[in-house]
Structure formats: C-alpha cells, structure tokens
Design brief:
The structure is a homodimer of 343-residue chains.
Chain A: H1 5-21, H2 27-33, H3 40-52, E1 56-57, E2 66-67, H4 69-82, H5 90-95, H6 101-116, E3 119-123, E4 126-127, E5 132-141, E6 144-151, E7 155-162, H7 169-183, H8 193-203, H9 207-223, E8 229-232, H10 246-258, E9 278-281, E10 293-301, E11 306-315, H11 320-342
Antiparallel strand pairs in A: 1-2, 3-8, 3-11, 4-11, 5-6, 6-7, 9-10, 10-11
Helix pairs in contact in A: 2-3, 6-11, 8-9
The first copy, chain A, binds a DNA duplex (30 and 30 nucleotides) through residues 24, 26-28, 38-42, 44-45, 47-48, 58-65.
Chain lengths: 343, 343
DNA sequence: CGTTAGCACTCATTTAAGTCGAGTGCTAAT
DNA sequence: ATTAGCACTCGACTTAAATGAGTGCTAACG
C-alpha cells in the first residue's frame, strides 16, 4: 500500500487538527475539515489504511486518531521542504540594543519563548579552537595580579593571581611583552610543556609567576568548556496538559534548571547536514526524559569557529511551522551578529 | 483564654505531625502522639480552644486541623529561640574547591536544595558603595581597547571600546595613569561632570576616549545592579502536592526562571534586625505568587560593604528546623569566605 | 471540675452503576 | 469506489450510595 495524494491530504488534515486541539480527531471531523468532500465512512477507510501504515494511532479503541512519531516526522519533513518565508520583524527587537553577549543571548531565548509559547534554550558560542588572542597582566595591589585573557571571538576572562612579593612596573611590562609575544595566536593545545619551560627560563626569577599565569589561562579556557546555557519559558510546559503531570513536569523543569542534560543536544549537528535545522520527535530525542516532547535545534555561527546552539522544546503537537520559522529567524540573526558586533 | 503549657504542647504536636504528613490531623492522632495521655475527647476540647485562638483551622467541617499562618509563626518563633546547634559537615563540601565566585554561589544554592528538598536562591554579593578600585585600558588591536574595571570586592568587569584611530603605547600609558590617579577610590556617584570635564581637558585630543571610558565604567557598574541570582531545586516543589497544581507550579517556576520577582526578597533585612534570619509565612511573603509558600532568608556579608542574600522557599509545612539550620550554616560559610578568598 | 466515653452528625473521598456520545468497523446498497 | 446505516466499543461524565475520619455535644465518672 502506498501513500497516495488523498491519503497524504487526510493525514495532514488529521495532524493539523490535532496540533490545534490536542484531542484525538475522528473521521467525521476530517470529512468536513478538508475540501475533499468525502463522507466520514470513506475517511474511516483511509484512516484504517493510514493506521496500518503507521502514521497514526488510536490511543484506545473507539477513539479518534492521533499522529504517531512517524506521522509527525512525515509532516515535519514535508513542511521543511516548502518552508521559505522569513524575515519577520523579530530582527529589530533583537538588534535594538547591542548589549553584551550574555544579555543578548538571554534575550534571544526569551524572544523565542514569548514568540512560540514553548521552552527555549540558547547556548553561548564556543570556539572549537580556543585561540588566545590577547593577554594582559596588571598589578592590582601589592599581592594581587589581575590577568585578563581574551580568546578568539572576544570572549573575555579574568583571573586574579596571588603573588608573594610585589612586582615593579618594569617587570610587569616585561612579563606582558614576553607572554604576548609567545602566546598570542596559539590554541590551548599548542601551549605545551616545552614552550612553558622556555618561557620560564626567559622570565628568570619570575618563572613561577609565568607558570601561575599559564595555569590560570589553561584553567580559564577550560572553564569555558562547561558552557553557558540560557533558557527561557520553561513554565510554558504547563500550557500543555500532556506534559504537565507531576512526574513529567518535574523532569523537564529539572532539565532546564540543571542545564547539564541539555548539553546532549549540542554538537550532533556538527558533522553531517551543515547548518541544518534538526527536529527530534518523541523517541528520537537524545534526552530520555524528553521523549514526550519534540525538540527543534539549529546551530549558529558566531564568526571564525565560534558556534552555539539554539533550541525550542515543546509538546509533540507543537506548531512546527512557527517554531522552524522562529528558529530560522533567530539563527540568521545570530549568524550576522558577529560582524555587527565587530564593527 | 491563654496558651497554657498543655495547649502549647498540643499545638506543637499538631504542627509537627502536619509537617510530616501534609494531612489535616485529628484529635485521635494527637491523643496517642503525645505523652500527655489524654483522650481524644479532651484533645478535641483543647483543639476547639486553639482554633478559637486562631492557631489552627479546619479546612472544612469534620476534617482534622491544620496550622494557620499564625500557628506556623508561633512554631517558628519558638523554634528560633532554642536553635543553637550548628557546624554541620556541609562546610567542608562548600570549601572543597575555592572556585570562582559564581561557581561557588551556584554550588551553595545547589547544596541547600539537595540538603533540604526545597527550592533555593543565592544572590551574588552586591556592594552598596560601588567604589572603583582599579582601571586598566589595554590595546587589543588597532580599533579596540579593552577596559578592565575592578570594583570593590574584586568584582571584575570588562568592556570593549571601539576607537576610530589606533593609539600608541605611550598614549595608552598616559591615559591609564590619568584615569587611575583621578578615579580610583571614588564611588560612581562621585564621578561627576566637573571631574569628567577636568579629565577630558587633561587628556587633550584624547578627551573623547576618556568620555567613552567613563561611560563604559558607569554603564558597567550600573549593569551590576540587575544582579545575578542563582537558583536551584525549583523542581522540588513537585514534591509537595499543595504547591504542584498547574497554576501554582507554573507561577513558581516562572518566578524562579525570571528571577526578577525574587529581587523583592532582597534588602528588607537591611535596616532593621541586623543579620537576622527572616521567615515569611504564607501571606507574609512579599511576593504575591508565593503566598502558599514559606520563605526563609538571610543576608550574608562578603567583606567591606558587599552583601548578598540566600533564601529557601518551600511549602508552609516546611521543616523550619532544618531550613533555618541550613541557612545558618551556609550564611556563616559565606560570611567567612571573603577572608579565605583574599589570602 | 477536669476528664472521658458515647453518640449523632458532617462531609470529603471512594466506589459502583449507569448514561452518554464520539468514533469505529463492517456490510449492503448505490 | 463511495456512501449510508447500524451495531458495537469504550472512555468520559454523572449520579448515588457507601465509607470513614473527625467533630461537637452531653452525660457520667473519679
């Protein structure tokens, strides 16, 4: 048996209706919903076929049908093809203020949440390279040195280093020059033991400080690994009864609070379909506790190797159309942000 | 009518039992629960009195009694008096790693959440003074200057400033000296227009840069105002049926995600009872959506004018004893952290 | 006079039975 | 191939009765 055109139309009508109502949909409804002018009996026959094909299921005998994961998948795939509109007015809101990165991402998450009524997440961009761009030591007071570390993509980190004895200005200058000359442009992997030893030798009696600085650099960059994730709209899940029974809601909220779990959504998109939007439906989700949800994600590029992720999490009956649209908009927005941010 | 000793005992037994079970408690239960050896009938008489006094209420006729807000209040007040144990092993966990401030606070929140099974919050310490401690401009590349701003309490902020033309080393040095000489030790309020004008004059052709820097400083410090709040254990509310119906849970989760609302819990403690632990029960809460909860908060001092808040939010029938204990421990931990962090 | 046993009464909760209706599958007619 | 008709299913809702925890009151007791 094949999915002919009529079956397709009926299937789409069923899914569409279910997305709106959240209720199982019966043959009678479809009989009127479509412009096919078919009686409910005919629809019933077709529905039986569609069920046999695995696109829809009955939650129980003598109830209407609801889409199976396969059904959703079919619907999403079809939709993705013809999806090409865009450029909504969201852009302006996002650009309104060229704020600091974290504020911007927070806002992006919120924007998506408000716009779609689902839970959303945005990860800070992370460089796969972690190239050191700039390093600056300053004497804060007698026993503290402030190290400012800038890595590619203008991610800035600070560390305070304790020193036993105060260093004079000249020494500070020397150390700064020494470090910047040798380390700038190197990735963290390239800063190996040999290089460190050489530097320490050049620094003479200040070798220990060099070591401390480099340790701090390494740790700071590494710290960036457990990356920031901004979420918003977690409480939207309460708008969907199928997600808000106690156990499920608790699990979901937990995932959104811990954020640790959400990292599983990252990086899958890396190798294969470049820059594609991914849709996980139900059991397809890499996160077990979200098997009653659908998840739509996309990566964004933040210039030169920096990449982050945005995602929307909602019930399986989410408005895929809108969600994909929103994701695309935000994604392209973030994609172009880097140049903007850099001028 | 007065609260004699027997009534007090009965009241405490009622509350204690209700805290454990979450169910209205009847006379029969109390009759056995206490060592008073009284029949249920006697208890009933006493309960009628207690109800008349406003310490307990009946959710409906012919159900057991539950504590009123006033009842909780009585219980908490009594408990606070005799509460003096402390020094749990929590300390070690918290000290285990002298991590960066935000990690530490996050951990503190989590620790409390795990320990108590309630929702918790920790705000980053905020200085009431905002004194500029140290300022450093560095040339990052031709068109960008990195400004590092350290304010009292070792809060470090970065800003990137765009400049039209590149500045040479000498100029940078001059600017740094100029700025540090005149601004260090001043609060943001003290950096007024007169001072700025004077500085600009001294900077000559680089006046505009001075202005940008000071703007950045002002904005950065101000940005600190919408302070960080770390939360944990929000999903614990699902463990308490009285909080997890859809509407309430949604409201609570929302408060914890938005965090904006939580700021209302801050600063009340400021003027009056110094360093006291505050307990808001039910309607006493400054946050409307939390009127079914109890909230326990405390301020902690982070050295020299920096102060933050920790709080635990749970159902009215929370284990006040444990919560106050936990809060005290964490508070004293954070109080002493500053010295630790500074050595 | 405080305490207690006894008892009638209340009322949320649970259980069972019954009704309703949306929806199905099948068959026969068009 | 399509449709009308009909018996059947089964969850959802309604109603009624049973249950039982708990109360308030009264009368008896030490």
């Amino acid at each position: 048996m094949e999915l002919d055109e009529r079956k397709t139309k009926i299937l789409q009508a069923i899914i569409k209706n279910y997305l709106e109502t959240g209720e199982p949909v019966g043959s009678r409804t479809i009989s009127k919903y479509t412009d096919l002018n078919l009686s409910s009996a005919t629809i019933r026959n077709e529905m039986a076929d569609l069920e046999e094909l695995g696109f829809i299921v009955q939650p129980h005998t003598s109830a209407g049908r609801i889409p199976s994961d396969k059904g959703y998948r079919f619907y999403v795939d079809a939709m993705m093809l013809e999806h090409e509109k865009e450029v909504e007015q969201l852009k302006d809101v996002l650009l309104e203020k060229e704020e600091k990165l974290d504020h911007m991402l927070k806002q992006a998450a919120k924007l998506m949440a408000v716009n779609t009524n689902y839970a959303t997440m945005v990860t800070a961009p992370r460089s796969s390279k972690n190239v050191l761009k700039f390093l600056q030591l300053s004497r804060m007071d007698a026993s503290h040195i402030l190290a400012v570390i800038v890595i590619e993509g203008n991610v800035i980190k600070n560390t305070v280093i304790d020193v036993a004895e105060s260093l004079n200005d000249e020494t500070m200058l020397k150390l700064n020059i020494l470090l910047n000359t040798h380390l700038n442009g190197l990735s963290v992997e390239e800063i190996n033991l040999g290089l460190i030893t050489a530097l320490k030798q050049q620094a003479g009696m200040y070798g220990p400080i060099i070591e401390e600085v480099i340790d701090a650099v390494a740790e700071t960059i590494k710290e960036d690994e457990d990356l920031e994730i901004y979420t918003s709209g977690a409480n939207n899940i309460f708008k969907y009864p199928e997600l808000s029974d106690n156990q499920k809601a608790s699990d979901l909220i937990n995932a959104f609070e811990e954020k640790q779990l959400l990292t599983q959504l990252i990086d899958d998109t890396d190798s294969e379909g470049r820059n594609e939007i991914k849709v996980y439906i139900g059991e397809e989700s890499p996160i077990q506790t979200m098997k009653d949800c659908s998840i739509v994600t996309a990566n964004y590029e933040f210039g030169d190797g920096m990449r982050g992720m945005i995602g929307i999490i909602g019930p399986k009956r989410m408005d895929y159309d809108k969600v994909v649209g929103t994701i695309k908009t935000i994604k392209s927005q973030l994609d172009t942000m880097y140049k903007k941010d850099d001028n």
